[in-house]
C-alpha cells in the first residue's frame, strides 16, 4: 500500500476559554512513524482526533498526500484509528471484528443478511475477498487460532492485536494510534510495542502514535513531537531529543524520574558557581544570563571527597533499582543532586558518606532565564 505524507498547518483548538492547541505545525513524511509525546492534558489526543476528522479545528488545515482533509468526512479520509479502549464489538468473534470495516464498506445492507445476501449477484465473491483479507491480516498478527473467540475470552494483548487488525485490514494510508498500550501491564506493553514496530517495518504505513511514555516514544519512533500546554516545543529523532532538549520542560519530561536542576547566576566564560566551587559547562559558553544548570543522574559521577574538581557532597539516601541505583546527595548551599551508579558500587555506600560529585561538562545543559537553549530541531519540518 502506498503511504501518504501528512501536513498539519497552524492548527488551533479551543474548548470554551481554554486554548487546547496553539499554532501546531508538523510535517510527516510518507511511511514515517511519528509520536506525539507529552503529559496528560497537553492536547496530543485532540490533535489526533482533528487529523481523523473526529474534532474540528478552529484554525489551520490538515492535508494528506497533498489533499485537503478539512471538509472530508472521517470515513473518507483513508485513515485508521486505533483507540486506547480497543473499541471491539463484544458480541462479535475476532474474525467478525476484524472483518467489520470491510463488511460495512463493501456489502450492502441486503448482502449482509445471512440467507438472502448469498443469493444476490456478486455477493459471494465480495464475501470471499473479505474472508481472504481477514485471513491475511490475522496471520500477520498471529491471531489465526483465536478467530472464533469473542473479546471477553481474550487477554489485553490479544484484544489490542484484534484492534490493530481491524485497522489494518482496510489497508489505510495513515494509521492513528491513541495510547494503544496504556491498558496493558508492563511486560505485555513491551511485547506489544515490539509487534507494532515489526508491523510498521513490514507495512511502511505513515503512523501517528500518541503516548505519555518516553520509553515507548523512543523505542518506536523515527521522530518524536513533544507537546506542552497545546504548543509544539520540539520535533526530533529520539536520540537527538535525549542529547539536546530545547527547553527545561522538555528536559524534565524526558529525564523522568529524576533531573538534577540548580538555579545559577550568569556564567562567566562558561563557568558556573555552585557554592564555593566553579564548574565549566560547555553549554553555558557565550551566555551572559542567569539560568538553570540541569543534568541527568547518569551524567554525574561519585568520586572520593578530595577528587580534583569534584563538589563536596554527603549521601542522604540510596534507591536500589535492579542493576542500577540512584544515590541522593546534599551539596553546598543547600543544593541536592541524584547520581545513577551501578548496584555493585551502591553496596559500598552508606547514608552520611562524604564523597565528591563530578558533572559531565559536555552533557550538562544550561537553560538561560529567557527560556529556550535554541538547539535541536523544533520546527516540525522533515
From TrEMBL:
Residues 6-254 form the ABC transporter domain. Gene3D superfamilies: 2.40.50.100, Nucleic acid-binding proteins (2.40.50.140), P-loop containing nucleotide triphosphate hydrolases (3.40.50.300). Its main location: membrane. It is found in: Cell inner membrane. The keyword Translocase applies. One of its GO terms (cellular component) is ATP-binding cassette (ABC) transporter complex, substrate-binding subunit-containing. Coiled coil: none annotated. It holds the Pfam family TOBE_2. GO terms for molecular function: ABC-type transporter activity; ATP binding; ATP hydrolysis activity. Keywords: ATP-binding, Cell membrane, Membrane, Nucleotide-binding, Translocase, Transport. It is a peripheral membrane protein. PANTHER family: MALTODEXTRIN IMPORT ATP-BINDING PROTEIN MSMX (PTHR43875), TREHALOSE IMPORT ATP-BINDING PROTEIN SUGC (PTHR43875:SF15). Belongs to the ABC transporter superfamily. This is Glycerol-3-phosphate ABC transporter ATP-binding protein. It comes from Mesorhizobium wenxiniae. The lineage of its organism: Bacteria, Pseudomonadati, Pseudomonadota, Alphaproteobacteria, Hyphomicrobiales.
Amino acid at each position: 500500500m502506498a503511504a501518504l505524507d501528512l501536513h498539519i498547518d497552524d492548527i488551533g483548538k479551543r474548548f470554551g476559554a481554554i486554548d487546547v492547541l496553539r499554532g501546531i505545525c508538523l510535517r510527516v513524511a510518507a511511511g514515517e512513524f511519528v509520536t506525539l509525546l507529552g503529559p496528560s492534558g497537553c492536547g496530543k489526543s485532540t490533535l489526533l482526533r482533528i487529523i481523523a476528522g473526529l474534532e474540528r479545528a478552529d484554525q489551520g488545515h490538515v492535508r494528506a498526500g497533498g489533499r485537503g482533509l478539512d471538509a472530508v468526512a472521517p470515513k473518507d479520509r483513508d485513515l485508521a484509528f486505533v483507540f486506547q479502549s480497543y473499541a471491539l464489538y463484544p458480541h462479535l468473534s475476532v474474525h467478525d471484528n476484524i472483518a467489520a470495516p470491510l463488511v460495512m464498506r463493501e456489502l450492502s445492507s441486503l448482502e449482509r443478511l445471512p440467507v438472502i445476501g448469498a443469493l444476490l449477484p456478486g455477493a459471494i465473491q465480495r464475501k470471499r475477498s473479505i474472508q481472504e483479507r481477514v485471513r491475511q491480516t490475522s496471520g500477520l498478527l498471529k491471531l489465526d487460532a483465536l478467530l472464533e473467540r469473542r473479546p471477553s475470552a481474550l487477554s489485553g494483548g490479544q484484544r489490542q492485536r484484534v484492534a490493530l487488525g481491524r485497522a489494518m485490514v482496510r489497508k489505510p494510508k495513515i494509521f492513528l494510534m491513541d495510547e494503544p498500550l496504556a491498558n496493558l501491564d508492563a511486560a505485555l506493553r513491551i511485547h506489544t510495542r515490539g509487534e507494532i514496530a515489526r508491523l510498521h517495518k513490514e507495512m511502511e504505513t505513515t503512523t501517528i502514535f500518541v503516548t505519555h511514555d518516553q520509553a515507548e516514544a523512543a523505542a518506536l519512533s523515527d521522530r518524536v513531537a513533544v507537546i506542552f500546554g497545546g504548543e509544539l516545543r520540539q520535533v526530533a529523532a529520539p536520540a537527538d531529543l535525549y542529547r539536546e532538549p530545547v527547553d527545561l520542560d522538555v528536559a524534565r519530561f524526558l529525564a523522568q524520574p529524576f533531573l538534577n536542576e540548580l538555579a545559577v547566576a550568569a556564567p562567566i566564560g562558561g563557568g558556573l558557581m555552585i557554592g564555593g566551587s566553579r564548574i565549566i559547562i560547555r553549554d553555558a559558553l557565550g551566555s551572559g544570563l542567569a539560568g538553570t544548570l540541569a543534568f541527568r543522574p547518569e551524567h554525574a559521577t561519585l568520586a572520593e571527597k578530595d577528587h580534583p574538581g569534584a563538589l563536596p557532597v554527603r549521601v542522604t539516601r540510596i534507591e536500589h533499582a535492579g542493576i542500577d541505583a540512584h544515590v541522593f546527595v546534599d551539596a553546598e548551599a543547600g543544593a541536592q543532586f541524584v547520581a545513577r551508579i551501578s548496584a555493585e558500587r551502591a553496596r559500598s555506600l552508606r547514608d552520611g558518606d562524604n564523597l565528591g560529585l563530578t558533572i559531565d561538562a559536555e552533557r550538562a545543559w544550561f537553560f538561560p532565564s529567557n527560556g529556550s537553549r535554541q538547539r535541536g530541531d523544533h520546527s516540525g519540518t522533515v
